[in-house]
Amino acid sequence: MAISMSVKLLVRQRADFLCEYCHSSEEISAARFEIDHIQPRSRGGSDSVDNLALACQRCNAHHYNFIQGKDPETLNNVDLFHPRQQVWNQHFIWSQDGCKVSGVTEIGRATVQRLDLNDEVRGDGEIMRSRLAWVKAGWHPPVSDLRQLI
Ligand SMILES: [Zn+2]
């Protein structure tokens, strides 16, 4: 069943128009973000708002139908970050220059790698160049991510 426009708007507003994985801003992106199923539909995930997250095209594509990733430090397979059940700031942190996101937990590190949040797997660094421009413009990282530094 298609997700209604009202539910899509709810998901966007709830996410404060940020990708709930990489925290890119929909407002400064060329393409509208997508409605991601945290538990993929192909694995029985529902269209319930509790299973939906706002995701940029990159994260949604990398998320695909994965629910787990491997932490590169411990080599444990762990569940990916769950935006409805977990708090972003407890699993991820920005580099000093605001361009690179790092995981600070097994879940965070596995998610950084599985969703290739820094274009390290693909290797072209495209998102890092975008973030650098956003930092220069004062649009990134989101203010909500900097609270812990103030
Ligand atoms: Zn994203």
TrEMBL record:
Taxonomy of origin reads: Bacteria, Bacillati, Cyanobacteriota, Cyanophyceae, Pseudanabaenales
Please name the Pfam families in this protein's record. Answer: HNH
Annotated keywords: Endonuclease, Hydrolase, Nuclease
MF (Gene Ontology): endonuclease activity; nucleic acid binding; zinc ion binding
Against InterPro entries, the record matches this protein to:
HNH, HNH_nuc, NA-targeting_endonuclease
Q: What is this protein called?
A: HNH endonuclease
Keyword presence, Nucleus: no
Question: Which SMART domains does this chain map to?
Answer: HNHc
**Domain HNH nuclease spans what residues?**
6-61
